[in-house]
Amino acid sequence: MIKILLHGCNGKMGQAVTNAVNDRNGFVITCGVDPFGTNSYNYPVYKSFADVNEEVDVIIDFSNPALISSLCDFAENKKIPAVICTTGLIDKQKERVNLLSKAVPVFSSGNMSLGINLLIELCKKASLVFGDAFDVEIIEKHHNLKLDAPSGTALMIADGINDVRDDDPRYVYDRHAYRIKRTKNEIGIHSVRGGTIVGEHSVIFAGNDEVLTITHQAQSKSLFATGAVSASQFIVSCSPGIYDMSDMLK
């Protein structure tokens, strides 16, 4: 039985992870940590890690970037593996996560969907085939409560394309500020926020007289929760280091 501490348990993704664990054998949430109130779960919820006394095998994090430091301190002190799904981390917070990975195994991903990770691989292949003959634009759409923009997934896609290109791609987020012709090494990234859109990512490869568009739509948050629970099972048996979905799928 894998014992989970759920960080950010009162948020929408925390609720989805709770439901995913309830639907699977071999997992149990022993406690939650969330500074923003409590909820009627069948496990205790604490406002800080300092209050946790339960036995924990792994932490699943769907919280807020501002809380990453306290998570890392707790995981490092207790030597607990972590699945970090929170997006929008700044460089200093990413450095803290990397430091944590020297002490414990850390699964870090901007998106826990198998479909999104396949989309990234398809985009890499397209980039290798098209080279700089096709312009690349990424459009991401999310609900109106999402805090960070662009999404962590959009950046994952851009980084994947960047990895296979040799023309030093430049990310352009706000084209209205530029009064110049589009350069070949640009990757445009655009954000849409509205309604209850769970998540949609489209990658446009625009060439002369033809356009290829690769799109992924998330229909519910449950797919991300299921991925996070599967990642927790994977990470508990790993050595210290940083892991992502590609490692789990090998």
Relevant terms:
about 250 residues, alpha/beta, seven-stranded parallel sheet, five-stranded mixed sheet, 12 strands
Kindly describe this structure:
Helices cover 32% and strands 26% of the residues. The chain contains 7 helices and 12 strands. The protein is elongated. The strands form 2 sheets. A 7-stranded parallel beta sheet has the order 3-2-1-4-5-6-12, with helices on both faces. A 5-stranded mixed beta sheet has the order 8-9-7-10-11, with helices on one face. It starts with a strand and ends with a helix.
How does the SSE layout of this entry go?
Layout lengths: L1 E6 L4 H11 L4 E7 L11 E2 L11 E4 L6 H11 L3 E3 L6 H10 L4 E4 L5 H17 L4 E8 L9 H13 L5 E3 L13 E8 L5 E9 L2 E9 L3 H14 L5 E3 L1 H4 L2
Helix pairs in contact: 1-6, 2-3, 4-5
Count the beta strands. 12
Structural class: alpha/beta
Termini Cα gap: 24 Å
Order of helices and strands: EHEEEHEHEHEHEEEEHEH
Radius of gyration: 19 Å
Total of helices:
7
- Mean pLDDT metric: 93
Kindly state the percentage of residues in helix.
25-40%
Short description:
With 250 residues, the chain is of the alpha/beta class. Helix content is 32%, strand content 26%.
